[in-house]
Amino acid sequence: MRRSHAPIAIAVGSVAAAALLSRHLDYIWHHPGYRWVLGAWMTGTAMVFVQWLVSWLDRSPRLDEQPDLDRLNVAISLPVYNEDPRILDRTLWAAVNQERPPQRIDVVDDGSVIDYTALRAHWEGEHHGCVIRWIRQPNGGKKAAQARTFGDPGSADIIVTVDSDSALEPSAIRRGLTQFADPKVQSVAGVELAYNFRHNWLTRTVYARTLFFQVVACGAQSAFGDVLVNRGPFALYRANLLAETCDAYTEETFWGRRIKLGDDAALTLFARGRGRAVQQSDAFVFSMFPEKMSHHLRQWTRWMRGSTIRNCWRIRYLPVLSYGWWYTLVSAFLFLMAIAGPVCMAVTWPASEGVVLWTTGALVPWAWLSGLRVLAVRRSDERGLSRLVTWACYPTSILWMMFVLHWVRVWSILTFLRQGWQTRQHGAESLTVTEGDDLTIAEGRL
Fold first, then answer.
1. 3-state SS, residue 440
2. Nearest-CA neighbor of 324 among 315, 335, 337?
3. What is the pLDDT of residues 89-139, one digit of tens each?
4. C-alpha–C-alpha distance, residues 151 and 158, integer Å
5. Cβ partners under 8 Å of residue 266, min gap 6
6. Quick one: which of 206, 390, 186 has its CA closest to 297?
7. DSSP-based three-state secondary structure for 108
8. Are 2 and 378 contacting, i.e. CB atoms less than 8 angstroms apart?
9. How many other CB atoms are found less than 10 A from the CB of residue 116?
10. Largest Cα–Cα distance of the chain, in whole Å?
11. CA angle 438, 380, 218 (to 5 degrees)
12. Model pTM?
């Protein structure tokens, strides 16, 4: 994560945002019939700019400033459900070969139909001082799988949650631990990068949107100690927090129905209720993003069903004066406007033609301007041209959100009590594992 030339970037960005705001006000003045639409657009623009500005204030502690944190006992909770064995092997290899390895890894097979006999035979036991426990249980969902570690943390001070398709960058745990020097910090979110972002248009576009959200939106939330959702692929929590909230986590109900989704957001809300929830912007994990449209849409449906309930809890339990409370409220308002706007434009066509052309024309350059922050993350496996392609794809991710994912979210809200997992029901999702990723289980290495 590079933060060079911050004063110049803030100055240039502020001038550009001021110019855009002036244009908004001028257009609203001359088109009184669409003031509510343009007002909503201006609110969204202001929200992006505020996040962009505040995200520069997010700072991660330096590694050399936290020597005492090496004494912390770390355990990894790794739930598994119908994961590709080659991908799971990579996940375990990356966890064991950390610069600062954990003391324990709990692999909880939640009733998978895939045979992991060879993988289990290789990994179960002790590796470089890290003990791997392999536990199999009847299918009960991710919460039930994680509870095997949360409810029995043993001597662990910190519990790390890792998804079965996610490989930690070698220094991820060591960097993530630095935030716990502050006793108020209860959870730390890592930054998720797409391992397979080059595979097709879908993985590249989703990667651009995910990267922007973490660097800008979550960076701003972290500056206030108010991160709203940690990434499932990699997050760190104080073990005593998870032990004390384990029953509330697994037995959560809403309108009398058992809630299985929204697991990461629930843990983050527990952490925020106890203290600060922050992001470590240089602690990375590489995840496998959906490569097929059906997988992508089913994953988004699951996330949005979970977020419907989490937004209710945030409005109810977060302090009214907190950044997170207002972010949740404004985001809900902008979502409603994003749904109502296109409908009203269509109903009033052709009178709305000028507004449609202006907003669409302004969208792309504004997306490219605000999306420049995605270039702050520099990967050793990515050249400059590839980073520019990711940045160039960011406007398409916004259009995809506006015209497709918003409507999938509407369906998810209407059906939020359907708490099925949606993915991996009949085995591992089809993901490309290249020749360079063909792992040898017998040797346990890439």
1. strand
2. 315
3. 999 999 999 999 999 999 999 999 999 999 999 999 999 889 999 999 998
4. 13
5. 249, 252, 310, 313
6. 206
7. strand
8. yes
9. 20
10. 71
11. 100
12. 0.88
